[in-house]
Amino acid sequence: MTSGQNEQSAQRKAKLAQLREKGNPYPNDFRRTHVCADAPGLFEDSCNAADQSEPVSIRLAGRLMSRRIMGKASFAHVRDESGNIQIYVQRDKLPEGFYNDQFKKFDIGDIIGVEGVLFRTKTGELTVDASQVRLLVKALHPLPEKFHGLTDIETRYRQRYVDLIVNEESREVFRKRAATIRALRQFLDERGYLEIESPIMQPIPGGANARPFVTHHNTLDRELFLRVAQELYIKRCLVGGFEKVYELNRNFRNEGIDTQHNPEFTMLEYNEAYVDYQDYMELTEEMLQAAAQSVNGTALVQYEGQQIDFSPPFRRLTMRDAVLEFNPTLSKNQLQDSESLRNHLESLGVQAERGFSANYLLVELFDHTVERNLIQPTYITGYPEEVSPLSRRSEQDAGLTDRFELYAAGRELANGFSELNDAEDQAQRFEAQAAAKAQGDEEAMYFDADYINALEYGLPPNAGGGLGVDRFVMLLTGCPSIRDVLLFPHMRPERDS
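The chain above was modelled as a monomer; its predicted structure follows.
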């Protein structure tokens, strides 16, 4: 806070001390009859009624956002979650001495209760002519200046509660976030999917190549991990006989923080028996269109100067074709030659270790040259087995898998595949992952013996998908950073000034 803000806070605390001498300064006996947004309808109904002799009484509560004192009367604005309304406070309509001794000492940001009747001013603004005004909560810190608002980005993230008070745009972002989550759930619920809750603390963190957070359970005296994905538990449910399953919840990955990554994030993972990854591409694009339409009223999204269209069908490219499109100097044959790919990467300033396969280097090249160029929703297929340890092998192209990733606005939105349900094949891939972890790859998967045991009971042919909900909400709300769509994002500690 600035020195001026500190001084204002000290003054407010002094007022609070005086209030305490007179009784409880935080009463909880004021009951409102309406919210601010109800007022126009109430007033309009009274104007249309045959008998207009009875004024419309109303009791509201909210935060004092502005005030204009004019001697014996004042205008002010009160805001609740539904909106704002003007109040008109006259000295002679309040108890003796209240106007000068109390109301004039209210501060912007205080929470008050108001009772009165509705009328329109000469300028046409709907207003409450107050007969009672009560202080319900004393705000001890001043709000940011009216015309500048809370403009410091760091402070907006660290003190989201202040951001929400003063920025309607921020409140709208989180309303749309909630609407997005409702729309996604509704889409799957209407198709017969069962929503489950899988453990967040897990003995083995499976389902994705990611570095987990580690904790310790004292009673069990064992190491536990915050989950990195819901996938393996969803597929256990399919083994058990549920054929359409989803979970929309938090995952945790001990990774860096940037505009697209937060250590905890919301994922929607969904699986269905007796379908494949092609079916799931169609399902996913249908779901995203439905959610965009529900939240924004259109499948067209304006994002960072681009218009992105979530109307199906989305474009589909194999990874090899995508790399050739954005690396025109390469030939098809070179995509299968590790030395050619390594040389090309180095010409772009990307160092690639020797010993990596051509397929692995192909993924590196895709990440560096293609991903950022995929603005319209685009499915990339043909992912190598090396980077797809849970995906079913392609029967048409050895070394590749039946997998897709969805990109839009130059970033990954979703991942999905026909699930590997061969227990022996999965065990071999887990062993390869465990060997990589033993050699220092902290993102490689663990060997999950219980999951292999589940597969041995029989996992039906199925496909699964995973949608990064936070990134999708970024697109629907036009927000440039994941922190803009998380109410309370993780932040680096503040340095002492």
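The CA atoms of residues 260 and 482 lie 5 Å apart.
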